[in-house]
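Open question from group meeting: does this chain pack into something compact, or does most of it stay loose? Before anyone orders reagents, we agreed to write out a predicted structure and look at it together. Recording both the input and the output here so the notebook holds the full record.
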Amino acid sequence: MTMVRTYPEPSAVLELLKPITWFPPMWAFGCGVVASGVPLAERWPAALVGVVLAGPLVCAMSQAANDWYDRDVDAINEPHRPIPSGRIPGRWGFYIAVVWTLLSLLVASALGQWVEIACLLGVAFAWAYSAPPIRLKLNGWWGNAACGLSYEGLAWVTGHAVMLGGAMPTWRSLLLALLYSVGAHGIMTLNDFKSIKGDSQMGIRSLPVMLGPQSAAATACAVMLAPQLVVIVLLLVWGRPWEAGIVCVLVGGQIAMMRRFMAAPVDKALWYSGFGVPFYVLGMLASAFALRAIN
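Structure tokens returned:
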């Protein structure tokens, strides 16, 4: 006789929270820390808590919420996942997402006003992305914008604010965080090429579904490149030619790889994510060091 599981498996909970997805917001948080200009030694306990907030709390919460509201689709396309497989039974997926949301807000409230504001926005975007009736993920323009802003911009702002004791980051830092958030929209589009067939069947209007693979690839590349070009100009205007040069070289590398991606977008989207996107995030770090020098 097979016993029906009533509690989730610990390993399934970890799988639901997807540690592999925590890196982008943690990296962006680190860029905010660098951009603040505050020596890490002065605020390292708060910075450590902030890293946990950006990755294992807010990002993990967004993954749990997304899997809960995607459970019917996953039962068809990916039945091995924790919720459809039954390793996380009943409504435990929803409960985990709620508990992680409350933990995120509690931790953020201890780190200062601007950290709390950024966390509130990140949590709101996460639920709006996955949960009906808003469910931003049904539209590639809105869904990817919410992800890009949360994963890059808000995480950067959080890192900067933490180092300032919860105060408002500088306008330059806010501007660069916004620009890299815009570029991250294109990065999020890369993830949609692998699921064009399933998205079409389930009514999810990702950019590859709406525009077709070729046009979506061109759009993603343009969206990734344009903000970085603006960053280069800003760094030059702010008197940081060396960092501007580094970002320029990294952009050149991306353009070279984009040509290969554009030739076969469905087959090469994952390849570009692995080799092109690191150039993007290294440019973020170079820009953060430029702000550190300005501060």
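Observations to bring back to the group:
Residues 176-295 form a domain with the Four Helix Bundle (Hemerythrin (Met), subunit A) fold (CATH 1.20.120).
The two ends are 67 Å apart (CA to CA).
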